[in-house]
Design a protein that fits this description.
The structure holds two protein chains of two kinds.
Chain A: H1 2-33, H2 38-62, E1 68-69, H3 72-83, H4 89-103, E2 107-108, H5 110-125, E3 140-145, H6 152-165, E4 170-175, H7 182-193, E5 196-199, H8 206-220, E6 224-229, H9 237-253, E7 260-266, H10 272-284, E8 288-292, H11 303-310, E9 314-318, E10 326-328, H12 331-338
Parallel strand pairs in A: 3-6, 3-7, 4-5, 4-6, 7-8, 8-9
Antiparallel strand pairs in A: 1-2, 9-10
Helix pairs in contact in A: 2-3, 2-12, 3-4, 5-12, 6-7, 8-9, 9-10, 10-11
Chain B: H1 5-12, H2 24-40, H3 45-59, H4 70-86, E1 100-106, H5 112-125, E2 130-135, H6 142-153, E3 157-158, H7 166-180, E4 184-189, H8 197-210, E5 214-220, H9 227-238, E6 242-246, H10 256-264, E7 268-272, E8 280-282, H11 285-292, H12 298-308, H13 311-322, H14 328-337, H15 343-350, H16 354-361, H17 366-378, H18 382-386, H19 393-403, H20 407-427, H21 432-444, H22 467-500
Parallel strand pairs in B: 1-4, 1-5, 2-3, 2-4, 5-6, 6-7
Antiparallel strand pairs in B: 7-8
Classes of the chains: A alpha/beta, B alpha/beta.
Chain lengths: ~350, ~500
């Protein structure tokens, strides 16, 4: 017994000391990975910090004592933490069961379990890093879709800012002709970010707006053309057909366009995001996801089952209301930020 | 996408079959299925856990009633408990003698501005004067959006161009409303994160200075586990009076409502079920429970059907049907009554197993189809509508051109009419039971399998006829036909006589 006591006393300060030591190390690895825009990752990380804090405190709670027996109660607590990230019951149960089979009846340390969970998440989200696929020649057309209020227009403003910073000229098509003053909202952003805009008539045909925007981009030799669309629920068949039409109209002008179809998902969304990913990728062949509103307390864990089922990569995350609040998504960063202590 | 809970429960509760009592042991699997259903509907983990514990306690030791099987009994307990948590219902907005001030708050993109418009429309229907106040100075063009909505509804919208402080906009607006003797003021505040201390403080300042009578939290129906955190923060900052959940016209199951209700304890007032300004409904816990459990909402469906159908028109139709008439004109009328925007999809969403139905319906644009059918009927002459039998191929071509559709669609419609007319006639004047039978006939014919062609119903004679009997029947039919023709002829003659006279 005395030996155990000794071990406990020793382990306690060691653990505390280990934490500050790991943090800077992580910082440096971040900087190395993101030489071009370290501030973006700083923001990305700070946005996820709340999530991290939350997850860490909870996981640490599991291990109040040095090492804990992995039993049903332990696994249930782990399951609760996983479900709270909105990853869904499926992935959460699978991770729980894996931990259960790997560690059951063993006394474990926090780092073991965390590393295991983090690996699982990272493996699922692993993707080649390629934020935007630009066209070989001519304008790169980006179609932006999503449900009502997910943050499409604000995300477009952020994309405009990003392209402007890259020295690219942008044309935006204000294709949300349905919601009151949506065109105006985008026009204000376009003016702020110095992009050309094609405005649709109120209640007009969004496909016509898309056509005009692409035509203007070709004519003026702009590098990027972003098309906004009205928010729609994936169950509204007629509106999803309208989306298909917009897609067709763009393809007619430039055969390999749209080069990117970005689905904007609200990070606060729960399991319905799966249905959104399915509906929108069926209608508009989404090539990527922008996970908006990640600066709140929401975890956005639903991208895990989305990635598993539909293989749509997350390209960007929105971390604030300003146009500069956009970060390139990185699976390692995401997993590391979720379980920073495991490193 | 979602497995129906009932099915899941059935398999999980197989062990319960024939058991006389609900016990912890025999309910465990079933309750696990319920818990999973709740979590998949985005009910927060803690709330789901509490709920399951509560149900288990309640059900424990209950004798299984003779009339029910254990699955049904457990479902009934779950249902009652959920209704109890989500209730009581109170969708009334208490009015004061002077200006009543309503304030909307919530996260970004939850639907505050649209809900302001919907609420105004509802209040207008109750003959109340309303003023909208644009206090969202954050989002670009939010003020314009509210102005457009106000313009559509014909209500004044208060805004102060160039003003940076929403607190003073709100106080000035209420002062103006008092002067103009306006009954209700609706404040549209900016969306904000519950952890954004600066903006939350601003909201509290508005609350203190203006003292709204009712503060409503607008929650997105698709919200996940985070609903608990944000609802808690808003409730602590503001003392909410009600919750409005939006975007429930899709396939989101809205389990966040359970979390929000549990955390805030304030009544759920309304639910938003569409993009149009009249798509705001008083909250009904029963419907929501069925939805969260993934079972559809039959009561809501019936209510909606009732609200759509005009009573007197219905009586007229009934009389006509009893007289054995059901023309294409009547068909069109019926179609038109269900052609309100968004209604079809909404009704479909209320059907049990809606995920299945909607999957089935994907690629079928019910509303657009119905509109095209109306177009086809409109392209017919009056005579053709009364007697579709005369529509020969050349007429079909003409009608198709007139309606801008393919001839095949005209053919399809006529076929559909042919199948439907006898059923409609059969249903007329029948008792409830008779109608159910008639509806079952329709179901058999595949009416609820949209997209499939409808087979023509062949009447069941009930027995096999000998060739002699058949000849007899044929003779009788022909006799009848001759009699009808005679009658028509004499009818025509009489009319012509009348013309001469």
């Amino acid at each position: 017994m005395g030996v155990f006591d000794l071990f406990k006393k020793k382990a306690e300060p060691a653990r505390d000391a280990a934490r500050p030591a790991t943090m800077p190390r992580q910082e440096t690895s971040d900087d190395a990975a993101t030489e071009t825009a370290p501030s973006l990752f700083g923001r990305f990380r700070s946005a996820l910090k709340k999530t991290t804090d939350f997850l860490n405190t909870d996981i640490r709670d599991l291990f109040k004592r040095e090492g804990r027996l992995v039993d049903d109660q332990f696994l249930n607590e782990l399951y609760a933490i996983l479900v709270k990230t909105d990853m869904g019951t499926g992935p959460a149960a699978r991770i729980r069961d894996r931990i259960g089979s790997d560690f059951r009846a063993r006394v474990v340390h926090m780092s073991d379990v965390l590393a295991s969970v983090q690996d699982e998440v990272r493996a699922i989200l692993k993707q080649p890093q390629r934020p935007i696929q630009f066209a070989a020649s001519g304008p790169t057309v980006i179609l932006v879709v999503g449900v009502n209020g997910s943050g499409k227009t604000t995300s477009i403003a952020k994309l405009m800012r990003m392209f402007r910073d890259q020295g690219k000229r942008v044309v935006v098509g204000a294709g949300d002709t349905f919601r009151a003053a949506a065109v105006r909202q985008l026009a204000i952003w376009a003016e702020r970010e110095g992009a050309a805009i094609v405005e649709g008539e109120n209640q007009g045909d969004p496909a016509a707006v898309a056509h005009k925007a692409v035509a203007l981009a070709i004519q003026t030799g702009a590098e990027v053309c972003i098309i906004d669309t009205a928010g729609r629920l994936q169950t509204q068949t007629n509106l999803m057909q309208q989306l298909e039409k917009i897609y067709r109209v763009i393809t007619k002008q430039i055969p390999d366009a749209p080069h990117e179809v970005l689905l904007v998902l609200d990070a606060t969304a729960g399991q319905n995001a799966l249905s959104q990913a399915q509906g929108f990728s069926t209608a508009a062949k989404c090539t990527g996801i922008i996970l908006a509103k990640l600066d709140g307390t929401a975890k956005g864990g639903v991208i895990i089952p989305i990635r598993e089922r539909f293989a749509i990569p997350v390209k960007f995350v929105g971390v604030g209301e300003k146009s500069s609040d956009l970060a390139v998504f990185d699976a390692d960063q995401f997993a590391a930020a979720l379980f920073a202590d495991a490193a | 996408m979602f497995e129906s809970l009932q099915d899941g429960l059935k398999s999980a509760l197989k062990t319960l079959q024939g058991k006389a009592k609900l016990s912890e042991g025999n309910m465990r699997e079933g309750l696990a299925a319920v818990e999973q259903a709740l979590l998949e509907a985005d009910v927060s983990y803690a709330v789901a856990q509490d709920f399951i514990a509560h149900v288990s306690e309640k059900a424990l030791g209950q004798k299984v009633l003779l009339a029910l099987d254990p699955v049904q009994q457990l479902m009934a307990i779950i249902y009652q408990e959920l209704v109890a948590i989500l209730g009581p219902v109170d969708s009334a907005i208490p009015l004061r003698k002077e200006v009543t001030v309503l304030m909307m708050c919530g996260l970004q993109g939850s639907g505050k501005t649209t809900t302001c418009g919907k609420l105004t429309k509802l209040l207008q229907q109750n003959k109340k004067s309303v003023m909208l106040v644009a206090a969202d100075l954050q989002r670009p063009a939010a003020i314009e959006q509210l102005h457009v909505i106000g313009g559509q509804l014909g209500v004044p919208v208060y805004s102060e161009p160039g003003q940076q402080d929403p607190v003073s906009v709100c106080t000035n607006a209420v002062a103006k409303a008092r002067k103009d003797q306006i009954a209700l003021v609706v404040l549209d505040t900016a969306g904000r994160l519950a952890i954004d201390q600066e903006l939350m403080d601003q909201l509290v300042r508005i609350d203190k200075r203006v003292g709204p009578d009712q503060v409503y939290l607008v929650v997105d129906g698709m919200t996940g586990q985070d609903a608990v955190n944000s609802a808690k923060a808003f409730n602590e900052a503001l003392e909410l009076d009600g919750v409005i959940m939006t975007k429930l016209d899709g396939d989101a199951r809205g389990g966040a409502l359970l979390s929000v209700k549990q955390v805030t304890g304030v009544p759920i007032k309304f639910i938003g079920t569409g993009e149009h300004l009249d798509a705001l409904e008083p909250f009904r816990p029963e419907g929501m429970v069925s939805r969260i459990l993934g079972q559809g909402d039959i009561v809501g469906l019936a209510q909606m059907a009732r609200s759509v159908i005009d009573e007197t028109a219905q009586k007229e139709m009934e009389a006509k049907l009893q007289a054995g008439e059901f023309t294409l004109d009547d068909f069109k009328k019926q179609l038109k009554s269900v052609l309100q925007p968004g209604l079809m999809t909404k009704m479909l969403g209320l059907l049990p197993g809606m995920g299945e139905i909607q999957k089935m319906m994907s690629g079928v644009d019910a509303e657009g189809d119905a509109k095209r059918v109306v177009g086809i009927i409109d392209s017919m002459t009056a005579q053709e509508r009364r007697n579709p039998k005369i529509i020969d191929p050349s007429r079909r071509n003409r009608i198709a051109r007139g309606a801008g559709v393919q001839v095949a669609e005209v053919n399809g419609l006529l076929k559909q009419y042919e199948t439907m007319a006898p059923i409609m006639r059969a249903m007329a004047g029948k008792s409830m039971m008779g109608r159910m039978q008639a509806i079952q006939d329709i179901q058999k014919s595949g009416m609820f399998n949209p997209g499939a062609k409808m087979p023509k119903i062949k009447g069941d004679t009930g027995k096999r006829l000998t060739s002699k009997e058949r000849a007899e029947m044929k003779k009788r039919r022909e006799k009848e036909l001759r009699r009808k023709q005679r009658e028509q002829k004499s009818d025509r003659d009489r009319r012509q006589d009348g013309d001469v006279a």
